[in-house]
Amino acid sequence: MAVKKRGQTFVYSNPPHIVAHASIVGPEESRGPYGEYFDLHCSDTKCGKDSWEKGEEQMAADAVNLSMDKASVSAADVDFLLGGDLLNQIITSDFVARDQDIPFLGLYSACATLVEGLLLGAGLMDGGFADCVVAFASSHYQTAERQYRTPLEYGVQYPPYKQFTVTAAGSYVLGWTGGGVWITHGTLGKVMDLGVSDPNDLGSAMAPAAAELILQHFSDLKRGIVDYDLILTGDLGKSGIKMLTVLLEEKGILLSDKLMDCGAEIFGGEKKYGAGGSGVGASAAFVGSVIIPRLISGELERVLLVGTGALLSTITVKQSETIPGISHGVVIEKLPGG
What we know:
The chain is an alpha/beta fold and 338 residues long. It folds into two domains: 5-175, 3-Layer(aba) Sandwich (Peroxisomal Thiolase, Chain A, domain 1), CATH 3.40.47.40; 181-334, 3-Layer(aba) Sandwich (Peroxisomal Thiolase, Chain A, domain 1). It starts with a strand and ends with a strand. The chain is globular. It contains ten helices and 15 strands.
């Protein structure tokens, strides 16, 4: 009997702590309004390597290793490594796991991958299958852009609704002690497709899944917007946030000033980034470096983190297929007495 599930939501009876987090970002992100919050900064987009793909691998590996160092754990202490990225066959994460002597689960929910990792990692721990889990994710502008859309050399102009893939990686160590926050709930979303086919308009493809996830989460737990200090999406961008707001208002939910999006925030308001950032690296770096400190300080008490992913591929785009969207959510709360 599934005694720990309400609807589509896991209720963790033994919530794991986020013991440590580490982030690394690229040059553009370093110059953004949150640049000083991140742990490490790449001075060039190849992170000192001889290709963008190798640079992304280095970036993700550095984030994993630094998060483990912060938590004072070694590979021998970690039961499972969960990770994903945006490249074909999540090859970045595979290569990172290759160099860690840890059982590995590769994940893919596009930009919702980090939340999927946190949700499943917490489930493995709450289920008694693990005492320590590391979840990580990465994305990279140059590697993703040339894979999904057009060669960088084309110099394609950004329409106002297009998002700029964030070059960043983040890693989270889950354990039973340490840290100042824990993961108390996780809501699994369903794939939704409302017919968006433009690979530049990812916000519109993801917003319906995000709205459905939030509504499902509230229904499962008999909660509402009043029960949360922040609804943090990652990452709809400025266009997707507008659509999400409208979709929820139609259901009588007014988010007012409680809605924030990792992608819309990470670069500030500069027009050259279109609708803001995209890519799983946005939430992977932003949540741990910007939001968790606010929870620990007491500025926030409970946050619903909603990962949003556009499930497109190089093949489906060329065949003019529509873009399904997926969304998953986890509740991150300040530890009692913390």
